[in-house]
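Repro:
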Amino acid sequence: MLWREGGGVVEDFPLDEVSDHLQEKDSLVWVDLCDPTYDELCKLAEELSLDRHAVEDSLARAERAKATRHATHTFVTVYATRLQIGADRGLIESRLDVSRVSTFVLPHGVVTVRQDDRFDMDDVVQRWKDHADLLKHGSGALLHGLLDVIVDGHFDTIQRLDDAMEALEDGLFSERGNARELQQRTYRLRKELVELRRVVLPMREIVNAVMHHRADLDGRSSELDGWYADLYDHVLRASEWTESLRDMVTTILETNIALQDARLNSVMKKLTGWAAIIAVPTAVTGWFGMNVAYPGIGKTSGFVASTLVISVIVVTLYMVFRRRNWI
């Protein structure tokens, strides 16, 4: 996609014309490559003088989020996130989908490299259209739109995890809840938060680095300072929210263990109380069943007396245990 001063937009032009358009004054170019081969990217990199190490990093399967300044461009790697609520997955398997987007930020354009199509660039294009007046500020505006959409996706993921955590809290004190299922869901949520934290926390350094590098790219850094400051504030909020959720899920795990111990103690108290009550008739009947002479032996009065003794003691123990909430 090519933007020209005055509102002209050209889409789907040949890739061989990218370098020519980048040299045009008052032009802005965006190139998006989805799952390119190494040869394809190297051909474009040679044409645009992209750093060889940055090209290798954009195709590597495992690369951390970062922003690196090179001689002719800035290389930025970020991760978009999406939580698959309702997906057909187990109670332990993570529902967090992470998509990497690598960006080469040039003075008059950007080149984005995606390893798959899970991250929809249509949202980014729509964001650029909604703020078309910013595009006159150069490639910094394109990068801001991309980062803004990705950070909004982080917020959406965090909100879904927060809702899932509230559901866990509701089931934590439920007497009918499945303790094993609750433990599995808590473990899954903790694993998802750990994965999310790895891509959200580095965004602070990335946005901060981009804010310092933009002046060297377009020479009009002051025009977008307010927009990037607002983006940095969103990144800080997302980081703090992620950290608070991580602390909360740890608290849920500890509380669940404490509640399990408390429930076990309650069960043991009830079993002990009923065992004491049952022991009374056992003791009395066992004593009167001995082959020794005792008052009322062989008579109805002896049977009545033993029954009264059992009833009075059992009722007394039940009332005492009940008053102390043991049963």
